[in-house]
Amino acid sequence: MGLEGFGFNRLRFRDLSEQEVLALAISSEEDDARIYRSYAERLRADYQDSAAMFDEMAAEEDSHRQRLIELHRARFGEVIPLIRREHVAGYFARRPVWLVENLGLDRIRDEAAAMEQDAEAFYLKAAARTEDAATRKLLGDLARAEASHRASADRAAEAHLDADARETEDDRAHRQFVLTWVQPGLAGLMDGSVSTLAPIFATAFATQDTWTTFLVGLAASVGAGISMGFTEAASDDGELSGRGSPAKRGFASGIMTTLGGLGHALPYLIPDFWTATITAIIVVFVELWAIVWIQNRFMDTPFLRATFQVVLGGALVFAAGALIGGG
Questions:
Q1: Domain co-membership, 137 together with 182
Q2: Alpha carbon of 192 to those of 65, 159, 234, 265: distances in Å?
Q3: Which of 91, 203, 244, 269 is the most buried (most CB within 10 A)?
């Protein structure tokens, strides 16, 4: 990677000519329109109202870009310098579209609002720092253009996202979040927390060797995590069930399975056996109640039923491991 990858050898904003500032604004408007269209395509299948809003915002960016091009043609001619935001030190950056798209509907809406706000704030600060009247006017005009973008976004949201439409889309987004992340993650946490209790505590009471117990717990947790992750990813491609990306579900299930087992394996890094065991039992108690809370909060499982299923089941598995190891 060259020095420019770390921000060196970039242009400084204060050194740009008025033509270069205008060219930078044109390329930024073009990039933002492309981002909004990417959001619209990402959302169109499931959130048609939000997709229509982003289509309108992209069209608004196109109209402002055209006005800037006409201004450049009138002042500087047909040839627009090639300058983009990544060429200028300190210029506001946009987060990768693929990253924002994968964070859900609310995150996309928030990012769009931040895009307009960042651009407006940047132009206002830049205008306040320049002493050249023409440059100050140009930057002020750009700041007002960004402010009008925000107003346009608000109008688009009002036109396409009334209270009922927003509530419907939010409910759908929440359901998708539960199906893609919470449900497989919860299944993994339950499997990792409960299924590893017997081998870990059986080893602990049989050997009373904390390092051996930790190695058994580590192996059981990692093995269970790999198994659960691949099983979840291979069991359903999400096309018919609507449960979302198999890779995301497999990742959630595998990671949470591993963490569920490691929770009560890590205390056995403590050299003293009884200190490690008591700490592990406390961790198990916390894990089981965390599972109960998640079931009640996201899966609408009645609290008493979740408590009975998880805590009683975990207690039985723990007792089995302790009896086998102690025998």
A1: no
A2: 54, 47, 19, 11
A3: 203
Identify the sign of the CA torsion 49, 53, 54, 56. positive
CB 61 within 8 A of CB 32: yes
Question: Residues 15, 148: one domain?
Answer: yes
Residue-level pLDDT at 280: 93
The pLDDT, as a whole number, for residue 248 is 82
183, 264: one domain: yes
- Give, as one character, the DSSP assignment of residue 96: P
What is the model's pLDDT at position 97? 66
Quote the pLDDT of residue 277.
Answer: 93
pTM listed for this prediction: 0.52
Q: Which two tokens stand for residue 157?
A: 């949201």
Return the structure tokens found at 143: 């700041």
Q: Select from 295, 269, 266 the least CA-distant residue to 283.
A: 266
Domain span holding position 311 = 169-326
Q: CA of 66: how far to CAs of 4, 81, 82, 143, 276, in Å? A: 30, 16, 16, 16, 68
Q: What is the pLDDT of residue 242?
A: 60
Positions in the chain whose pLDDT score sits under 50: 1-7
CA distances from 85 to 73, 88, 119 (A): 21, 6, 11
Question: What's the CA gap between 197 and 281, in Å, rounded?
Answer: 10
How far apart, in whole angstroms, are the C-alpha atoms of residue 64 and residue 149? 9
Alpha helices in the chain (DSSP H): 18-43, 48-76, 97-101, 105-129, 133-160, 163-177, 183-195, 197-207, 210-235, 246-265, 273-298, 303-307, 313-326
Among residues 161, 181, 208, the one where a domain terminates is 161
Nearest to 24 by CA among 125, 133, 122: 122
Q: How many residues does the structure list for the chain?
A: 327
162 within 8 A of 50, measured Cβ to Cβ: no
* Same domain, residue pair 173 and 157: no
